[in-house]
Amino acid sequence: MPAEKEPVGVIGVGWVGLVTAACFAELGHEIVARDILPEKVESLSRGEVPIYEPGLPELVEKNRERITFTTDMAEVLDRTRLLFCCVDTPPTYSGDADLSRVETVVDEIGDSTEHAIVMKSTVPVGTGRSINRRRPGIGYASNPEFLKEGSAVADFMKPDRVVIGAEQSSAAFAERVAALYEPLDGPIVHTDVASAEMVKLASNAFLATKISFINEIANVCEQVGADVTEVARGMGLDERIGPQFLRAGIGWGGSCFPKDTLALKQLAGNSGYHFQLLSAVIEVNELQKRRVVSKLQKHLGSLVGKEIALLGIAFKPNTDDIREATSLVLAARLHGEGANVRAYDPVASAHAAEHLPGTTICDSAMEAVAGADGVVIVTEWPEFRELDWSAVKDSLSTPLVVDGRNFLDRDAVAAAGLTYEGVGRS
User: Fold this and answer.
1) Do 347 and 149 touch, CB atoms closer than 8 A?
2) What pLDDT, on a 0 to 100 scale, did the predictor assign at position 1?
3) One of 23, 85, 256, 362 is an active-site residue; which one?
4) Is 221 a catalytic residue?
């Protein structure tokens, strides 16, 4: 008879928490997932998933009998011993992480010697040690998440690595956490708490650095007549470099890269070190989001009164997340230049209006481009590649496409009679 699976508590049922709960349930664990919002708990209990993440609604539905959603922390503490903390840690005005939600979770657990916090939330290095000093009775392990929006379920079930940081006093809890992941057959990295916390920040900062680097190369390519897609292809074949994250574009966004790069820069500054490289990475990204405006001006002149269509609002495809999305910055800059902006996204349009004041949200790509003076590909949704570009040309006032992701078939767009402007492409 197989060993009984350990029950798992999940505190905070946002994107990370819900994926964590659903995937551990899929592995056979009983889950008690707690959130402070009654309406969210009620909808989740009905099987309604409030976020767009491919495969997640099906996984929640499949495992509904294993997952209890509740607002009652006492129920979580009574039924589980390993508590995965998945609450939000947004940046404050100072740039430091807001740990108030984490501190609330710690206070609710109290001085229990039976429970352990497994920290999934992204926290500054030193958070775990601080919690251990405040509540020495609580077991503690750092278990950073490395999920990508749009492929989170697959990332959880087939991890590149599982990092577990714990001090000697919590070694037994760390082994129990490791046992949860054993069926996934991914490499498990055991380390100390501070190093585990740093792994998450350093990983995202390095990936952001690769993107900002290739965007800088793209900008140079435009000046010297090279094609950054060919440059990236040649670079990526070097096994020391690899092809991942070498796609030039108009900047990164989302909930992780901006927050984690700023958090690491702030951490370094608080410790007395000026992280010059990371400061440049962040600056390059912010400037890159604005370069589309100059590309439009090159072809259209003044943008006052011009109609500009943005195809894509989410920060990346396969998600409805528009946090720190390039579309937000771009729309604001276009409005500042006097342009009229309309936008469409296959998924994110539904809740985009409040974040894009003054922008007309359209129900289809063709509605967005009708009568426009220029089209900008902001998010590389597959449906944009499949557009009838001859029909798009006939619909536009000015046949101009700025491909902010180098996503389209340049030859096909040009063959349809449109002017094509990519990023770093001659």
Assistant:
1) no
2) 43
3) 256
4) no
